[in-house]
Amino acid sequence: MSTAPLLEVRNLCVEFPSRRGTLRALNDVSFSIGAGEVLGVVGESGAGKSLTGASIIGLLEPPGRVASGEILLAGRRIDNLSDDEMRRVRGREIGAVFQDPLTSLNPLYTVGHQLAETIVTHLPMTWAQARNRAVELLASTGIPAARERIDHYPHQFSGGMRQRVVIALALAAEPKLIVADEPTTALDVSIQAQIIELLKKLCREHGASVMLITHDMGVIAETADRVAVMYAGRVVEIGPVSQVIHHPAHPYSAGLMGSIPTLDRHVQRLVQIDGSMPRLTAIPPGCAFNPRCSQRMERCTRERPELLPAGPTQAACWLHDQEVTA
Amino acid sequence: MLTVALLAFVLFQYVGDPVTIMLGQDGTDAERAELRERLGLNAPAPVQFAKFVGNAVQGDFGISLRQSEKVSDLLKSRLPATLELSFAAALIALFIGVPLGVYTALKRNSALSQLVLAVSLLGVSLPTFLIGILLILVFSVGLGWLPSYGRGETVQLGWWSTGLLTANGWKHLILPAITLSLFQLTLVLRLVRSEMMEVLRSDYIKFARARGLKRRAIHFGHALKNTLVPVITITGLQLGGIIAFAIVTETVFQWPGMGLLFIQAVQFADVPVMAAYLCLIALVFVVINLIVDLLYFVVDPRLRMAVSRGTGGH
Amino acid sequence: MNTIKRWWDSDLAWSWRHTPVAMVATVMLIAFLIGSFGAAWVAPHNPFDLASIELLDALLPPVWSENGSTNYLLGTDSQGRDLLSGILYGTRVSLLIGLASVALSMIVGIGLGLLAGYAGGRTDAFIMRIADVQLSFPAILIALLIDGVARAAVPRELHEVIAFPVLVGAISLAGWPQYARTVRGSTMVEKGREYVQAARVIGVSSTVIMFRHVLPNVMGPVLVLATVHLATAIITEATLSFLGVGVPSTSPSLGTLIRIGNDFLFSGEWWITIFPGLALVLLVLSVNLLGDWLRDALNPRLN
Question: Looking at the complex, does the CB of residue B309 fall below 8 Å from at least one CB of chain A?
Answer without folding.
Answer: no
